[in-house]
Design a protein that fits this description.
Structural class of chain A: alpha+beta
Subcellular location (chain B): Cell membrane; Membrane
Chains: A alpha+beta, B mainly alpha, C mainly alpha
Number of domains of chain C: 1
Radius of gyration of chain C: 21 Å
CATH architecture of chain C: Up-down Bundle
Number of strands of chain A: 12
CATH topology of chain C: Four Helix Bundle (Hemerythrin (Met), subunit A)
Shape of chain C: elongated
Oligomer: heterotrimer
Family (chain B): Belongs to the heme-copper respiratory oxidase family.
Shape of chain A: elongated
Strand content of chain A: 15-25%
CATH superfamily of chain C: Cytochrome c oxidase, subunit III, four-helix bundle
Strand content of chain C: under 5%
Strand order of the largest sheet of chain A: 3-2-1-5-8
Membrane topology (chain B): Multi-pass membrane protein
Order of helices and strands of chain C: EHHHHH
Number of strands of chain C: 1
Catalytic activity (chain B): 4 Fe(II)-[cytochrome c] + O2 + 8 H(+)(in) = 4 Fe(III)-[cytochrome c] + 2 H2O + 4 H(+)(out)
Order of helices and strands of chain A: HHEEEEEEEEEEHHHEEHHH
Pathway (chain B): Energy metabolism; oxidative phosphorylation
């Protein structure tokens, strides 16, 4: 850039008009040498960068094979299904849009998609990896510090690509195990009339066709598993914070909050809506 | 020119027909030629013309109209993104907008506008009177126009493509594609590819065969070299997207299973085929732009380009290497590491020939005496911007880095630096440079400077911050972002800056409009340039040159500034051009050049109708074949042209 | 600018054969781009074959008879095709007329056999990706065959009219023969892929 500026601003010694074809042959030879060395330098830098890139890629790849924990993530339009495969069915955890990992331990993330292509990306933990239907893949991530890491779908996947975030919560090994055992349990039974009424409304108005709440007849698989909904930090793939108000707004009219989302608007009376919100809010 | 001897033997009878230009005085010569090469007056003439200048001009105007549409959709997106969770534009419209923006910019603006300039300039620069296949040329324009109109009319009826300009399956496939949107996209691609391939074929034949006598390979202007290399890249890259878009439409229409993993198909197959075309596509846009630079630069530094051979070899190297890069769009799909390394290396390697060109241009400037006219400003703006785009390009070629910035605003910033900085700046420079040749009037220098600085500064203010946004993790193709992300202020800044770019382009169009009526009269060679297009009047007559030039030097008009060496012996009562040998441009044949015809238009309508119908039923292809064949037969059936008389 | 005549081209012919004619280069460019299309389609075939656990997927290898018949006819057609090229260069109108009629018939024959060739694939295009790609390959070649036979017939008719006597028509006939060679060669390759790759 500097050379360009110099070339432009250089004082011309012979400003007299001369034919454009009069070329100074000594100058041409100097140019040839200068251009030649500039090219040689470029080649050198590029070769070094290629080698550096290769080793960086290798050291990232060397993490795989040492994992102590596996998480299975399935992309859906527009949310993330998260499973922790256990030794038997009763131990397997199913949740959505939120991954808990123990700090400092490499975690194997198995990725698959059942509809379109998504891409799993938590910028502060690892690079992207696409979720391609029919081509399961995996990725190793490791969180060195405890904390909450936000991730987001990075491959355009339709209407609500913008609202398809995932949260990774890295915590101490003990905290992680405590979380794991809570998630393993089936949903707590409704306590009190309001929660019972809520469960009744949930089961009878069609919610159960798409959602599962383990421990109840609700066993739909289209939408996220709600067994421990209230333990999550956010709703609708990090579109809303998990508060009773947001939950009520979301159930009342998902399409105005996340247009195009697969969750339909279901007509509920105000009382039923409140009861459903209370019930779901109890599913810690 | 003793080497000009042909082989008269058995052709003598034929060779002696017609009125020749030999010894004809200039006034009578021009009258004859004007009659032989005329385009009928009025609307009908507009439909039937095969004049490369008229077709090139309308190609350019159409491409710029599509630029305006795509630019307005970008403005609408910036309006929505100015604030977090803004509700101006919903996801349905937003997804259509960014898809239409990308699709239009790539397929309907950038590639066609580069071809348009080639159609206009190549015959003039190599000293002939028309392209090799004038009717194919006319046909290609009509096909391009109908493809562009079709997809924008579909957009107006809320059927705009919305799966991205790359239309990844399964999102664009039979199961998830919305309504007929991906079908319109796929067929628009087919249209524009047909037209691009047609132009590539005629450019190759024209440059190979119709160069002025004496214009051997080492005397071809660098711009023409760049267009020739581009034509070859088109020839080998575009079939990939035709194959893939055909497969897509077959999957959607008749239930083939190319991309369906449940039936042995594969979603990644689409990406391989698409990027096999998609990466060379970038070079299809970029290579002619470097040609503009190599054409403009010598004129404004008053010396030939340094390193002619080096630049030609770089162009060819870029053409080849552009086919070795496609996988770098797919690093995140998870390929074997060795394969990734290969594509990293080849992506880095393409920086070498690009570097060669940059260094040669800088040496040229160093050795010359720069004149800072508007075309030159755009060239300098290009070098500055492109170097930044090239550096970030080297960064995204590295797999570990790419896995972070891929599909973020960093990449948005990168390719806008490469495509706007690397192609649109030289293009605007080219408009300022050749506008006098095309219209006969100069553009205003004062407005031109304002135009340059607004576009240049506005561009950098708009796109530079996107690098930072990308590194902060803002993904692409989102219609909104959460307030908590902290991206709001920078997005507002970007949206405001985009208004500066908009103002710059508004001035550009104002300048075109005003200068068309009031600009200073240009004369034949207003810039004192060296290539053949400046040897004829501005604007050039329908026959381009009253006598075809002979070339004795790489910079013909600097070597022979006053008197142009020409050939004689061509017919003036019928359209005739010279065809010569490929390497040395030794004349071999006086080839008749096709006359005006309505059939390219009617054939294009038939082809267009068949494509359009195929969106709704496969039978459209079968029944559509009938009018298409009629169109083509009538097109090629000789209609008593003089050369066909017994 | 003033002009200075330095060469006279009045004695040059108005048509010529092979690489002297711009049309020949146009034909070559079209052949190059179509060959690229074929190559990519064949690449897709092997790409899908490598991905699949069994190839062909869910179908027996295609029936050899009709495809081989087309191969025999096309390869045999090279002989009259080459003769017509020689006659065209000699500008022997009577022989070229005869040759064009022969080539039209020779062109229609494989199109008729092809009617039996699609069912001989023994799979439908919408059954799975294997079915899709073999139909695609065969369809692609049929399109080329149709176009060139159409072109040949039109040119044959033209040769019998007054306009057929113009010298340029011989150049057109020669370019048409050149393109036919491409149709034949591309079938040899596609035949091996469609019929013999599944038997490997």
């Amino acid at each position: 850039m500097l050379i360009l500026a110099a070339a432009l601003l250089r004082r011309r010694l012979s400003e007299t008009t001369r034919s454009p074809l009069e070329i100074d042959s000594r100058q041409e030879r100097r140019f040839a040498r200068a251009v030649g060395s500039a090219i040689a330098l470029t080649v050198l830098v590029l070769v070094m960068m290629t080698i550096a890139s290769f080793f960086a890629g290798k050291s990232i790849a060397s993490l795989s094979g040492t994992e102590t924990l596996a998480v299975r993530i399935t992309g859906h339009q527009w949310w993330w299904e998260v499973r922790y495969p256990g030794d038997d069915r009763s131990q397997s955890i199913v949740t959505a849009n939120e991954i808990h990992v123990p700090v400092g331990e490499p975690v194997k993330v198995e990725l698959d998609s059942l509809d379109v292509i998504h891409s799993f990306w938590v910028p502060n933990l690892a690079g992207k990896r696409d979720l391609i239907p029919g081509r399961p893949s995996e990725l190793t991530l490791i969180a060195d510090k405890p904390g909450i890491y936000r991730g987001q779908c990075a491959e355009f996947c339709g209407y609500q690509h913008a609202h398809m975030a995932i949260t990774v919560i890295a915590e101490s090994h003990e905290a992680f195990e405590a979380w794991q055992s809570r998630q393993n349990a089936v949903a707590s039974a409704p306590g009190g009339d309001e929660e019972r009424r809520g469960q009744q409304a949930f089961l009878s108005t069609g919610c159960a066709l798409c959602h599962t709440i383990r421990g109840t007849p609700a066993s739909g698989t289209v939408g996220p598993d709600l067994t421990h909904l209230a333990s999550r930090r956010a709703l609708a793939a990090d579109t809303l914070a998990m508060t009773p108000g947001a939950l009520a707004a979301w159930i009342a009219d998902p399409q105005s909050i996340k247009p195009g989302a697969k969750m339909p608007r279901i007509a509920l009376s105000a009382d039923d809506l409140n009861a459903v919100v209370t019930y779901l809010g109890s599913l810690e | 020119m003793s080497g000009l001897a042909g082989k008269p033997a058995e052709h003598t009878q034929e060779a002696l027909k017609g009125i020749r230009d030999t010894g004809l005085e200039e006034v009578r010569l021009r009258a004859f030629l004007a009659h032989a090469w005329r385009t009928p007056k009025g609307f009908y003439g507009w439909l039937v013309t095969v004049d490369h200048k008229l077709i090139g001009r309308r190609y350019i105007v159409t491409a710029f109209l599509f630029l305006i549409l795509a630019g307005l959709s970008a403005l609408a997106m910036r309006f929505q993104l100015a604030q977090p969770e803004a509700g101006h534009i919903g996801p349905d419209l937003y997804n259509q907008l960014f898809t239409m923006h990308g699709t239009t910019m790539m397929f309907l603006f950038a590639v066609p506008v580069m071809e348009a300039f080639a159609i206009y300039l190549v015959p003039l620069m190599i000293g002939t009177r028309n392209v090799a296949f004038p009717r194919l040329n006319a046909f290609s324009y009509w096909v391009y126009l109908s493809g562009g109109l079709m997809i924008w009319i579909a957009f107006a009826f809320e059927t705009g493509a919305d799966a991205g300009w790359f239309s990844y399956v399964p999102l664009a496939g039979p199961e998830y594609g919305i309504g007929k949107r991906p079908d319109f996209w796929a067929q628009m691609v087919t249209y524009t590819e047909v037209s691009a391939l047609a132009v590539a074929v005629e450019i190759i034949a024209t440059v190979f065969k119709q160069r002025a006598p004496g214009m051997s390979l080492d005397r071809i202007p660098l711009y023409v070299w760049s267009v020739l290399v581009t034509a070859f890249v088109i020839l080998f890259a575009m079939p990939a997207v035709m194959v893939s878009s055909t497969m897509l439409i077959l999957d959607r229409l008749v239930g083939t299973k190319f991309f369906d993993p449940a039936a042995g198909g594969d979603a990644l197959l689409w990406q391989h085929l698409f990027w096999f075309f998609g990466h060379p596509e970038v070079y299809i846009i970029f290579i002619p732009a470097t040609g503009f630079v190599s054409a403009i630069l010598p004129t404004f530094v008053r010396r030939p380009v340094f390193g002619y051979l080096g630049i030609v070899l770089s162009l060819i190297a870029i053409g080849f290497l552009s086919f070795g890069l496609w996988v770098h769009h797919m690093f995140a799909t998870g390929l074997p590491q060795l394969g990734e390394s290969f594509f990293t290396a080849s992506s880095m390697m393409i920086a070498i020939p690009s570097g060669v060109q940059i260094f040669c241009w800088i040496a040229t400037i160093w050795g010359g005496r720069p004149i800072f006219a508007t075309p030159m400003l755009f060239v300098l703006g290009f070098i500055f911007t492109f170097v930044i785009g090239g550096l970030t390009g080297v960064m995204v070629a590295s797999v570990p880095l790419d896995l972070q910035v891929h599909d973020t605003y960093f990449v948005v910033a990168h390719f806008h630096y490469v495509l706007v900085g690397g192609a649109v700046f030289p293009l605007l420079g080219a408009v300022y440079y050749w506008f006098p040749k095309i219209t006969g009037r100069m553009l205003s220098e004062r407005l031109g400077r304002w135009n340059f600085w607004l576009v240049f500064l506005g561009f950098n203010l708009t796109f530079f911050p996107m690098h930072i946004l990308g590194l902060q993790g803002m993904p692409r193709r989102v219609y909104t972002y959460p307030p908590a992300s902290g991206w709001g202020e920078m997005n507002l800044f970007i949206s405001l800056s985009s208004l500066v770019v908009f103002a710059g382009f508004a001035l550009f169009f104002l300048n075109l409009f005003l200068s068309l009526r009031n600009g200073r009269i240009a004369g034949g060679n207003p810039w004192g340039a060296s290539t053949l297009e400046w040897a004829t009047t501005s604007p050039p007559p329908s026959y381009d040159f009253s006598r075809l030039p002979v070339v004795t030097h790489r910079e013909p008009l600097w070597a022979e500034p006053d008197v142009l060496p020409v050939v004689e012996g061509l017919r003036v009562d019928a359209r005739e051009v010279l065809a010569g040998t490929v390497a040395d441009a030794m004349p071999q044949v006086r080839v008749p050049s096709a006359d005006n015809s309505i059939w390219p238009l009617l054939s294009a309508i038939a082809v267009g109708g068949a494509f359009l119908g195929s969106i709704y039923t496969p039978w459209a292809v079968v029944w559509g074949a009938i009018p298409v064949s009629i169109g083509f037969i009538c097109w090629f059936w000789p209609k008593g042209e003089p050369e066909d008389e017994e | 600018m003033r002009h200075r005549p330095v060469a006279d081209v009045s004695h040059l012919p108005t048509y010529d054969f092979g690489s002297a004619s711009p049309m020949w280069w146009g034909t070559l460019a079209f052949i190059a781009l179509e060959a690229t299309g074929f190559a990519l389609a064949i690449g897709t075939y092997f790409y899908l074959a490598v991905l699949a656990r069994h190839w062909p997927i869910g179908a027996p290898a295609p029936d050899l008879l009709p495809g081989t018949a087309v191969l025999v006819i096309l390869v045999a057609s090279v002989v009259p095709n080459h003769m017509i090229e020689v006659w065209a260069r000699r500008q022997d109108l009577a022989k070229v007329r005869l040759g064009m009629v022969v080539m039209s018939i020779v062109g229609i024959l494989p199109l008729i056999v092809r009617i039996w060739e699609f069912p001989a694939l023994r799979i439908s295009w919408d059954q799975n990706a294997y079915g899709s790609i073999v139909w695609f390959l065969l369809g692609l070649h049929t399109t080329h065959l149709l176009t060139d036979v159409g072109d040949t017939i039109v040119l044959a008719v033209l040769m019998f009219t007054q306009k057929g006597k113009a010298g340029r028509r011989f150049s057109d006939v020669s370019d048409n023969a050149f393109y036919w060679d491409f149709v034949v060669v591309s079938w040899v390759v596609l035949y091996l892929v469609i019929y013999w790759a599944p038997r490997m």
